[in-house]
Amino acid sequence: MTTMPATPPLPFEQHQRPMGLRERKKLKTRIAIRKATYRLIAEQGYDATTIEQIAAAAEVSPSTVFRYFPTKEDIVLADEYDPVLEAALRARPADEPPLESLRVVLTGAVASILENEPEEMRQRTRLMLEVPALRARMTETMAETSSLLARPIADRAGREPDDLEVRVFTAAVMGALREALFHWGERGRQDDLVALVDRTLDVLKGGLRL
């Protein structure tokens, strides 16, 4: 039976640096655009939803939408968690095995998203399974996250972020997270996603047991 880490999920607010008024306004705009997008997609589908409709629903101009999100796929997939993930990973004990540090950080991230944005998480996962363009873009964004997380892992190991072993390790962890999300989505999003991520990382730790 898979057990959850002894350390509870980190409250990510602790790892967010204070934002100035300008940054808060930008974040508010990003969130408004994203929420409008999810609402429109739920009502009329992904392909039928246009940038112009999103802009109108979010009460911004289409150029503003493109300034914050280069593509419609980015609106669905983008979030503000990557810098917080890196900060949370750097806050883990220096002598903790890297996989266990990532386990705590990633299960904490998933738990936080499910608590604060449950419907968006479910809709995003469903869309990733149904829309090929989103699935392709997700692969790219996860590679970007992998590169970001490689930095604190490399620092701890005394290696460079582009070190082959570091890249393989972080890419494998992100690949495991992706497969846990797909498994969850393919089965109706009814399972405990945090437990699935934990179980998936157990496979990386112990290998496939026959």
Automatic annotation (TrEMBL):
Residues 50-69 bind DNA. Gene3D superfamilies: Homeodomain-like (1.10.10.60), Tetracycline Repressor, domain 2 (1.10.357.10). Keywords: DNA-binding, Transcription, Transcription regulation. Residues 27-87 form the HTH tetR-type domain. InterPro entries: Homeodomain-like_sf, HTH-type_TetR-like_transc_reg, HTH_TetR, MftR_C, Tet_transcr_reg_TetR-rel_C_sf. This is TetR family transcriptional regulator.
